[in-house]
């Protein structure tokens, strides 16, 4: 008993649909709450450039109170750590208004939460 060409093409069409359904059920979709990104200082950026960008971020929308002495994100007291906190604060507070994580090429996005100890880096979906 042989299948007609229309039956074969219908079977092939059903197989393609099943493969597509299986593929899309395995691949996770990016949706609110599933993926977050933080803006941090690029490790390759020199401290003097980070310091300029850190100052700019704090003057233009970042909340830099937590990187002040005796605050939860003051330690470790490094330009890179403070810049990461300020960059992320600026980016999270203003990304809905079009802000980027660039800072003259001193920063980058990461999917890894940079929070440590009592220092929590904010993330706003």
TrEMBL record:
InterPro entries xrefs: X8, X8_dom_prot
Pfam families in alphabetical order: X8
Keyword entries, A-Z: Signal
Keyword Ligase: no
X8 domain boundaries: 37-121
Signal peptide, first to last residue: 1-33
Entry keyword annotation includes Plastid: no
Protein name (database record): X8 domain-containing protein
Native species: Datura stramonium (Jimsonweed)
